[in-house]
Structure formats: structure tokens, C-alpha cells
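stage 2 :: seqdesign
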């Protein structure tokens, strides 16, 4: 992924008009950045994740680790197997994947479990929570051959019903975020309004304005983290994000989980790094045709918007909802502990042709590159485990030799 600063605007005009109308009919003719981001990504007709053109993969705007081949899915499947064993091999075990992309990861996991762990496969229900009808249609094409796969929205999953593991990979970073800025050591929120066209130009530009925070939950968020933004080390102009949606999501998952695990893989930081005074511009990034830039007001509906994940917030909110922190590590260490290193070593003795061998080796090394995917965070939380089940350390959280 390379950086791009571009003034070219490839926005969807219908989405622009819709957002302008939403602003015009809102109090003070402004909306929060979270509302703007939600419309840009998730509007049911014009949002980025509901468009016909693929957003993910080589033909889209970005790649996720699920697109680097079957190896990553297979080593993660081994972690699911261990979870099943720790829980006493329940006869109804569920893997709930939230935001399953095109379904490639799920396909690889299911094929591997069917082949290598048929006892678990017989007990398995693979539930996908996917809000994008476009992606869900692709998933159904790929996964229709598996009887154990079902699609549910959150309302269709009964509270306190899931025994198994909730899983997400690069999901939380796409949740809408509120943006804030410090002015004279006071917490203020950034809103979006419209700017009158200059010289009757047909395109309306969006403009940021600063006002009071839209909800007391933003201040409560920092109380939860123990972060004091009034400290002089931050200074005027310090700007970052707050993901209240991530807290709501954590509450929902905890409500649905009866016994088992929540496995979250994403790029992000603990709170002390996320809100480091030197990170004065926040973490928001835009992805457009495999390049990134920092202008969220162009390419509306045709570019991805993301913000890094605050893993401390997920841990703290999880604890409030009855989840225990099992462990937090980097993806490189997690995958190596699960056997990815053995797979890399085995390539040297494989009978693959040279081109395939080099491609697979590059894919696997990319997954553990500490400057890229390998630096992603892996957070494991649990609920309802008995004391004896809490005693063992999950293989993925062990320090690899």
C-alpha cells in the first residue's frame, strides 16, 4: 500500500446529495463525523460497502489478510480446534464470523476442518454476520456448498446462546468514529457541514466546523480509559478519534456469547499509544485503489475510511460486559505460535513449481512482517469458562520457540 495525496474527486453524486440533504435538515446544519462516515461506508444504496464494484481484493481498494492464501485460515482453524477442546468438545459449537468479506477465509477454514478435524466439523455451525448485501451474495456463492453455514443479523442470534468463538478480522477499524479536537484544553467535537460553492461551481464541498461534544459518552470514554486529555502535554490542536460504535459492538457480542471466546484481529494500539501526544492528527486513513491518503471528503462511496482500533477500550468495555482478557499479542507472534513458521520451513522441501513456491513464501512472510500485517493486534477475550478451563494458555498466545 502506498501513500497518495490526490485532488481528483471520484465521489458518487447521489451520495453527496444525500449527505448534503442530511446536513441541511439536521440541527445547526451539521452532522458528526461518525454520522458522515456511517453514510459514506454503510448507506444501503450508495455506501462504499454496498456498491457493486468489489471493495476487497486485487480488483478493489485494499487487501485483507484473508486474501493471502489458505495458510492463515488453516492455522487459525487450529486455534478454533483448541478452543473447542478446552470447552469440553461441545456437541453444538459455533464460529461466528463478523464481517466475512467475500467468504474466502470461511471457505478455507471449513475445508480444513472438514478434512483434518471431522469430529469438530460435525458439531459446527458457522454463522456469518454481514450487513452488506453485495458481500453476502458473494459469500453465499462461495459457501453455499456447506450445510453448516448460516447468515444472521444480530437480532436473530438469541442472547446468551453461542457456545464457541466470535471472530473478526479487520472489522472494528471500519466502525464509524467521532472526531475531536482540543481547544484551550477543552474537549470539542468536529462536525461536518457544507460550504457554499465558489463561483457557482457545481460541486458542493464539505467543511469541518468545531462545536461542543455531541454526547457525554465521549467524555465517559476517556474516563473508562483513564486518559486525561486536559493535561498540558497534549496542547491546542490535538486531534484524534473515539469509536463509540466499537463499545456498542463489544456489548452486543458479550450479550450473545454464553460460553467461549472472542477473537479480534485488527490494526491498532493500546490507549497509551493511541493517544500519545505526538500522534496529533489521529489515525484516520482513506483507501482508494490500493493507495491511501488522508482526505475523507473526496471519492465518497468509492473509498474506504478506517481508523485504528483502541484495544484498551475493547478490553475495558469487555470487562464491564463480563468478558475476561485471555491475552493480547501481535499477529506475527500469534501465527508463529500456531505453526506458520513450520509451514514456511516446509516450503523448502515442497514439490511446488518455483513461481508458486516464491508466491506462497512471500504471502506467508507478509503475514508476519512486523511493519505490516504482522504488527496487527490480536485480542482474545472469554466468557463463561470454568476455573479449570481458564488454566491453560491458548497455543496462539504462547511465546514461539
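stage 2 :: out
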Amino acid at each position: 500500500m502506498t501513500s497518495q495525496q490526490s485532488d481528483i474527486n471520484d465521489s458518487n453524486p447521489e451520495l453527496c446529495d444525500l449527505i448534503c440533504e442530511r446536513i441541511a435538515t439536521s440541527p445547526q446544519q451539521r452532522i458528526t463525523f461518525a454520522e458522515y462516515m456511517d453514510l459514506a461506508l454503510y448507506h444501503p444504496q450508495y455506501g462504499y460497502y454496498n456498491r457493486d464494484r468489489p471493495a476487497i481484493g486485487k480488483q478493489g481498494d485494499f487487501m485483507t489478510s484473508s486474501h493471502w492464501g489458505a495458510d492463515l485460515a488453516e492455522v487459525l482453524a487450529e486455534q478454533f480446534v483448541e478452543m473447542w477442546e478446552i470447552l469440553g468438545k461441545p456437541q453444538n459449537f459455533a464460529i461466528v464470523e463478523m464481517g466475512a468479506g467475500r467468504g474466502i477465509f470461511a471457505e478455507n477454514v471449513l475445508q480444513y476442518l472438514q478434512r483434518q478435524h471431522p469430529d469438530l466439523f460435525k458439531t459446527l455451525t458457522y454463522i456469518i454476520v454481514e450487513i452488506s448485501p453485495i458481500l453476502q451474495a458473494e459469500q453465499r456463492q462461495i459457501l453455499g456448498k456447506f450445510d453448516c453455514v448460516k447468515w444472521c443479523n444480530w437480532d436473530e442470534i438469541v442472547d446468551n446462546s453461542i457456545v464457541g468463538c466470535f471472530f473478526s478480522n479487520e472489522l472494528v477499524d471500519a466502525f464509524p468514529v467521532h472526531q475531536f479536537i482540543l481547544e484551550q484544553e477543552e474537549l470539542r467535537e468536529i462536525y461536518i457541514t457544507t460550504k457554499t460553492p465558489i463561483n457557482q461551481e457545481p460541486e458542493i464541498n464539505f467543511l469541518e466546523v468545531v462545536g461542543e461534544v455531541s454526547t457525554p459518552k465521549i467524555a465517559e470514554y476517556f474516563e473508562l480509559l483513564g486518559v486525561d486529555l486536559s493535561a498540558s502535554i497534549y496542547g491546542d490542536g490535538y486531534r484524534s478519534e473515539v469509536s463509540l460504535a466499537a463499545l456498542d459492538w463489544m456489548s452486543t457480542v458479550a450479550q450473545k456469547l454464553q460460553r467461549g471466546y472472542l477473537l479480534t484481529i485488527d490494526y491498532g494500539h493500546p490507549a497509551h499509544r493511541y493517544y500519545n501526544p505526538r500522534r496529533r492528527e489521529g489515525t484516520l486513513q482513506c483507501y482508494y485503489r490500493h493507495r491511501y491518503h488522508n482526505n475523507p471528503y473526496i471519492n465518497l462511496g468509492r473509498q474506504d475510511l478506517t481508523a485504528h482500533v483502541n484495544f484498551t477500550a475493547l478490553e475495558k468495555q469487555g470487562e464491564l460486559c463480563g468478558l475476561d482478557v485471555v491475552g493480547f499479542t501481535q499477529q506475527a507472534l500469534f501465527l508463529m505460535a500456531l505453526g506458520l513458521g513450520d509451514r514456511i520451513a516446509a516450503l523448502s522441501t515442497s514439490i511446488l513449481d518455483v513461481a508458486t513456491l516464491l508466491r506462497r513464501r512471500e504471502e506467508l512472510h507478509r503475514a508476519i512482517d512486523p511493519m505490516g500485517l504482522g504488527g496487527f493486534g490480536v485480542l482474545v477475550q472469554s466468557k463463561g469458562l470454568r476455573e479449570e478451563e481458564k488454566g491453560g494458555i491458548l497455543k496462539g498466545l504462547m511465546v514461539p520457540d
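stage 3 :: structure notes
- The chain has a mean pLDDT of 89.
- The CA atoms of residues 352 and 358 lie 9 Å apart.
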